[in-house]
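Continuing the batch. This is chain 6 of the set; chains 1 through 5 are on the previous pages. Same settings as before, nothing changed between runs. Recording input and output for traceability.
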Amino acid sequence: MKMLRWGLLLLACLLMPLTGSAQQVHDYSKAKNAFRSAPEVRWFFDNAYGYALFPVVGKAALIIGGAYGEGQVYRKGEITGTVNLIHGSIGFQWGGQAFSEIIFFQNQWAYEKFTRGQFEFDAKASAVAITAGASAKTSTTGTSASATAGPQTGVQSKAYYTNGMATFVHVKGGLMAELAVGGQKFNFRPL
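Output for chain 6:
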């Protein structure tokens, strides 16, 4: 019981917003360029209705886990608001990591679903890792990423839209082991 209380306290600390409530537009060009330089992502930048970009998502876990990231939402190249990502999970898990994430919206319907707070990954949705040395998966059962030998040992996953959205992850570093269930929540605030 004591471990559960400490775990819940850790989760609460992880999920607290790291900045104040004032909205600010930031220059995320470095993160955007990292995604844009990947061949499997270029087509999405040229053809998507919009996207949500999270330059850094931090994740930590010890039985109970959490992740938090702040980003911006774009429609037809223009910033329309800010967004934060909150993820909670429970199960066998430990470690910490940092990654960037981008979610492309195929059309106006998908964009509006996301900005109204109705976005939820289903069991078939996954995030494609765009860099050698990393693999990642995001679904309603949690988010995970791990190091691999890179594409020279296999073929990168093919990216496609699922329910009007396509997600890519760029792992920055860390080590995470998990067998857990959890969910993500996105909070959009229009400018």
